Amino acid sequence: MRLSVRRGVTGLLCLLVTCILLRLVQQALRCPGRRPVPPVPLVLVRDRRRTEYRYGRDAPLVFVGGVPRSGTTLMRAMLDAHPDIRCGEETRVIPRLLALRQAWARPGQERQRLEEAGIDQDVLDSAVAAFLLEVIARHGEPAPMLCNKDPFTLKSAVYLSHLFPNVSLSVYSNWSSSSTSSSKFLLMIRDGRAAVHSMISRRVTIAGFDLSSYRDCLTKWSRAVEAMLAQCSQVGARRCLTVRYESLVLQPRTTLQGVLRFLGVPWHEGVLHHEDAIGQPGGVSLSRIERSTDQVIKPVNMEALTRWVGHIPADVLADMAEIAPMLSRLGYNPNANPPAYGQPDPVVVNNTERVLRGDFKTPASLKGQPWVSLCGFTSTAPTRRGEKAAFTTRLQLGPKPPRSTDRPMKGINLRLSPCSHELAADTWHQ
């Protein structure tokens, strides 16, 4: 008996000594001047009912993007009308930070200097993730699923997919399932001729796009879409979904059912009536300086689908297949003006007739607001029933945007104008 007790005590002592030695070896192998990178802290946000939401790097995020004027604002407004999703306005700062992060990752003297200072790629990733999460979580009301709509973020879809990995949705009370999801991406696709005409006619400036030339803009559009599609393909079909603007407009119910199924959230009828949720608590919040605001306050309609027809120069139309090869790749007939986009749902036909007749009513949250001049673009109200005003926006009166004081930073060319749709780093030409 005594022998068994002694053996037991000896065994415990040996186990304890082994554990201590292993701990000492681990500490000795660590670099004395290097501290472990802490995980991204949780961002805590409370809604109007004082319900607390906690967001970390495993939070279910949705990134909506695409070439500007491709329906990104309409998509995010429809998602905002869902009670479990919040997108909000464009942040503008997120594409800037992603462009800087891309510059810091390039091999060169600057990266070497950062690494010599102990700022390696892991440290930068943790800092970028914390910044993005803070901005996305706090620039609007909290919701079980957060969404970001900055069009050019889809150029960094692969990087973002690594920053925000998988998550178990069971930790969110609004979902009862225990399925595993992840950050997901919605890439909006639109006929490049329509997107470019919208850029040019509405003076939506994008770095690198010459708004005086349809040929140049269509060429740049084709390259931009190709780059984003490559990112989406690399992320994979389980996490990145391409959505056609034309399908969203013509068959909104079927298209949104597919989108919500992809995101893993239940269907809600309100997404088909986003205009009713504008300005409502937990509804759709609009920016007074985004160029699409005057369009998304209307119900889904076909008014903008073929507006480009008759405006593109004949020589550009003749060379369309060579100028914008992505048109054919995406299924748009480059020689049809316009191509067959599909059959509209009856409700869309009715909405379009209402809008064209002038029967559309401005949302109550925007009534009584003065018509404003934005970036040298004067908004004018319709003078007669049924008369359409070009580029009109009923917006809240506010101070004029300050003149841009942004200066180019060494190593990356950043340009931002108060009248620009979005900051664009010079990466389309790379």
Automatic annotation (TrEMBL):
Leader peptide range in chain numbering: 1-27
InterPro entries: P-loop_NTPase, TPST-like
GO cellular component: Golgi membrane
Name assigned to this protein: Protein-tyrosine sulfotransferase
MF terms (GO), sorted A to Z: protein-tyrosine sulfotransferase activity
Transmembrane segments: none
Catalyzed chemical reaction(s): L-tyrosyl-[protein] + 3'-phosphoadenylyl sulfate = O-sulfo-L-tyrosine-[protein] + adenosine 3',5'-bisphosphate + H(+)
Known role: Catalyzes the O-sulfation of tyrosine residues within acidic motifs of polypeptides, using 3'-phosphoadenylyl sulfate (PAPS) as cosubstrate.
Localization in the cell: Golgi apparatus membrane
Enzyme Commission (EC) number: 2.8.2.20
One Pfam family cited in the UniProt record for this chain: Sulfotransfer_3
Main location: Golgi
Membrane topology: Single-pass type II membrane protein
Family recorded in the similarity comment: Belongs to the protein sulfotransferase family.
